[in-house]
Amino acid sequence: MRDLLFGRKRVRFRSTRPYNTRSCRALRGPYLEHLCQFLLEFAVNMQIRPFQSSDLQRLREITVEAFDGVSIDQAMENAFGLINGHNWQWRKGRHLDDDVARDPGSIFVAEEEGRILGCITAWMDHEAGVGHIPNLALTPESRGKGFGRQLIEFAIDHFRKHGMTHARIETLVQNGVGNHLYTSVGFREVSRQIHFAMDLTAGADTVVFDD
To answer: What is the pLDDT of residue 31?
Structure first.
C-alpha cells in the first residue's frame, strides 16, 4: 500500500495486481484509464532526495541540455556570439553553482536506482514569505512522466514546512511545456517582462528578448 499524489489529491493505492498497458485498455471510462496511466508512471522507482555535492556536475549537464531553446543566455549568444570567451552552456551551468551557494538545502534530486533523472532548485526569502524556484530540469527520457510535477510539489511542500506563504517560478514565453505545467500545478501568471542586452564593445546595438 502506498500514497500517491494525483494532481492535488493524495490517493491511497492498495493492490497486488500488476498494472500494464493491457490492463489500462481493459478499464472503462477516461478517468479510470487516466488513473491507470498515472499508476504506471509511478511504477518507475523514482525517488526524491536532498542534493549532495557529488551531484553537481551531472546536474549541470542535465540542466544545460534541458534549457536548450528556452535560455536567456542562449538568446544572447544567438544575438552576439560568444561573450567573454564563454558559451551559453557554460553560463547556464554556473546558475547551478549560484543555486548551491545560495541554498543547498533547498535543492532536490530525482533519481531511479542511483541514476540521476533531474533536479529542482529553490531558495526562500523568509522575511518576504516567498519561495523561489530558479531551475527545474530532467533528462530527455524522464520527461512526460509526471516527474517534473512531483519535483515542483515537493518544493512547494518544502516551502510550506518553512513558513512560506507564496511561491514564484519563471519561464520564457516559448517554453510551452513549462507554461502548461506551472499553471496546471496552481501557479498564476501575474506579469511579463522583456529582457534587454547590449554589446558594450561595439557601439549602441541593443537586442530585446521577450519574456
So the answer is: 58
Determine the Cα–Cα distance for residues 207 and 33; give it in Å rounded to an integer: 48
Task: Compute φ and ψ for 164, nearest 5 degrees.
Answer: -70, 145
- CA-CA-CA-CA torsion for 182, 174, 144, 183, nearest 10 degrees? 20
Domain coordinates in residue numbering, the chain: 1-43, 45-169
| Burial (Cβ within 10 Å: 0-12, 13-18, ≥19) of residue 133 | buried
pLDDT number for residue 7: 47
pLDDT tens track for 35-52: 665 555 555 589 999 999
Tell which phi-psi region holds residue 69, choosing left (phi > 0), alpha (psi between -120 and 50) or beta.
left
pLDDT of 13? 47
- The rounded distance, in Å, linking the Cα atoms of 108 and 50 is 5
- Confidence at residue 16, expressed as pLDDT on a 0 to 100 scale: 39
| CATH of 45-169 among 3.40.1110.10, 3.40.630.30, 3.30.70.330, 3.30.70.20 | 3.40.630.30
Q: Which of 86, 58, 57, 62 has the alpha carbon at shortest distance from 74?
A: 86
- Taking each helix axis as running N to C, give the angle between helix 88-102 and helix 72-80, from 0 to 180 degrees, rounded to the nearest 10: 150
Residue 92: CB atoms within 10 A of its CB come to: 22
| Predicted pLDDT of residue 36 | 60
Which positions of the chain have pLDDT values less than 50? 1-10, 12-27
With H, G, I as helix, E, B as strand and everything else as coil, classify residue 120. strand
